[in-house]
Design brief:
CATH superfamily: Hotdog Thioesterase
Distance between the termini: 12 Å
Number of helices: 4
Number of strands: 5
Helix content: 10-25%
CATH architecture: Roll
Strand content: 25-35%
CATH topology: Thiol Ester Dehydrase, Chain A
Low-confidence stretches: none
Largest sheet: 5 strands, antiparallel
Radius of gyration: 17 Å
Number of domains: 1
């Protein structure tokens, strides 16, 4: 069982820079055809400082740390038993190429269902830019199968 003592656990902040090439590649990979995601002139004409970050790209950036799953063992998660349960994004401001984003995460809930056969860990991440502006909130639910 995942110990509920981990509720409230904060992780060291992680930073990542938004790079134009990566933003274009991601937009293409998700089938985004709006030129604001690939053409800087179109992005600026639409009011952005540079290429805007496509939706859900925050998840990719947070995974860029050297060992994004290192914390699993600390809290009792076992990678072979893990399922991606749920993910949501709440955006407050646009992020654009050249921005440096900081991800500050903490565990906000741990609960189980089916008499412990399924355990759930909820992690929330606050994302800010290089100016300290609140860009987004990311919520992830990780499920561990125990049966």
């Amino acid at each position: 069982m995942i110990d509920k003592k981990h509720i409230g656990k904060a992780f060291p902040p992680v930073t990542a820079e938004l790079e134009k090439g990566r933003l274009r590649f991601f937009a293409k990979a998700i089938g985004e055809t709006d030129p604001v995601y690939s053409d800087e002139a179109a992005a600026k004409a639409a009011g952005y400082r540079s290429l805007p970050m496509p939706p859900t790209f925050l998840f990719c950036l947070e995974m860029e740390q050297p060992d994004p799953y290192a914390w699993f063992g600390e809290v009792g998660l076992e990678l072979p038993k893990i399922l991606h349960g749920e993910q949501s994004f709440t955006y407050h401001l646009p992020a654009c190429a050249g921005d440096v984003l900081t991800f500050s995460s903490r565990i906000v809930d741990i609960y189980d269902k089916k008499k412990g056969a399924l355990e759930f860990m909820v992690k929330e991440t606050r994302v800010t830019n290089q100016n300290g502006e609140h860009i987004a909130d990311v919520r992830n639910v990780i499920v561990q199968r125990n049966a």
